[in-house]
Known about the structure:
This protein is an alpha+beta fold. The protein contains twelve helices and 18 strands. It folds into three domains: 7-129, 2-Layer Sandwich (Alpha-Beta Plaits), CATH 3.30.70.260; 134-228 and 346-421, ACT domain (Alpha-Beta Plaits, 2-Layer Sandwich), CATH 3.30.70.260; 258-343, ACT domain (Alpha-Beta Plaits), CATH 3.30.70. The chain has helices spanning 7-21, 48-58, 84-89, 113-123, 150-160, 195-210, 229-239, 282-292, 326-343, 360-370, 403-413, 425-455, and strands spanning 24-28, 36-43, 62-70, 95-103, 132-133, 138-145, 163-173, 176-185, 219-223, 225-226, 258-264, 269-277, 295-305, 308-317, 348-355, 374-383, 386-394, 418-422. Strands 1-2-4-3-13-14-12-11 form an eight-stranded antiparallel β-sheet. Strands 9-6-8-7-16-17-15-18 form an eight-stranded antiparallel β-sheet, with helices on both faces. A two-stranded antiparallel ribbon has the order 5-10. Helix 2 packs antiparallel against helix 8 (282-292), helix 7 (229-239) packs across helix 8 (282-292) and helix 8 (282-292) packs antiparallel against helix 9. The protein is globular.
Amino acid sequence: MMQMDRRPFLEEYEKLVVRMNTPRVMIDNAGCVDATRIMIDSVRKDGILLEAVQVLTDLNLSIKKGYVSSDGRWNMDDFPVCIFSLLITLSISSSSSTVFHVTNLDGNKLTDESIINCIQQSLGTVNRTKSKSIDGMTALELTGTDRVGLLSEVFAVLSELNCDIIESKVWTHNGRIAAIIHLKDCNSGSPIEEPQKINRIEARLKNVLKGDNDIRSAKTSFSIAVTHTERRLHQMMFADRDYERTPIINTSGRYSPLVSVQNCSEKEYSVVNIQGKDRPKLLFDVVCTLTDMQYVVFHATINTREDDAYLEFFIRHIDGSPISSEPEKQRVIMCLRSAIERRAPEGVQLELCKTDKPGLLAEVMRTFRENAINVTQCEISTTMGVAHNIFYVTDGIGNSVDLKVIDFVRERIGSSCLRVKELPLMFKKIERDEGGLGGAVLVSLGSLLRRNLYNLGLMKSYS
């Protein structure tokens, strides 16, 4: 009996699968006056919205508006009738259409062809996003109880154990701390892989993180592969249940959002509404948390006006059911508030730009600790032998640091290397109150001049 050659059929099948699983991306600069529109059509797959938002935020793009819709059906005109039956065997439930209105950080449309090409290439492969290896580095993860000087002790231990800190991001929220630190061995310049050294580092750091009375167990772990750093920080703080704790220091509360959850019984969705101050990466933080809580976003609307953001999400559990109880609603509200608050910077922003050397970070942190400066957030990076570090700092109870203290610290570290990048909110408020509407421009210009003189070392304080 002659058998049919199935190779052409299988090739068409493979092409179909690739086609359905490859997002279609269109970028339009003509359809909107003040933003670039990015349109994505794809198979609705768990996590794909997060991956798309992650691509845009990693390129430092601001998402001004957005629409997400999973319509639950396929346009069958796109597929040959002869292979329609194959769709029944595929575990694909619906398609998803997403439109983002984005600008660069200056609020302008995207005109850089390299950025546009990067968006098209990255969004076209989001289905294949994986954890990536860290080239030549080891990732160290830490969680524990936050306190003034904790980072100083952590970096001192790492320096003492000949660990070279290449990159790091640290978040604090509600008395908890989460950090991801990328390391190399100081002597060899290689990743730290020796089990004995790893055990020694973990033992020392756990003692530091526990402190004297840490009820919760401090956690440390090493890895040679890591998911997206900021997503991982969200996962670490979520697992640490920071949302259940109350703040131990004063916070401005300016980024605390209004969050509500209601059930739409007609469509069997739960509707999440968020209203608050807009800021970079806000949408990423929200979608990341919903994804990690095992919710699927079926429809969404994102809108920003000036400094305000309005977000609405229609969600279900991954099994298709809506939120079923009041305690679960309250948990979603708490988790989303925490996700938004934990990234929101508190305090004065300081920037350190200095030639890197062994122990530099430990020296800087020790100076902060000796002057009772609390680091609420930091981002460490090293490029071509130059350390570029951003710190957000307060005093020990969360208030703005006295600028005389900052002046003293700058002199100790190097006034040309450590600069004040952002004034505390309280000083901005004082300027508004004193200047009023009529004097706002003059006060703003005067403040800018004083800040530049201060950074140049020609002025001792803003007062």
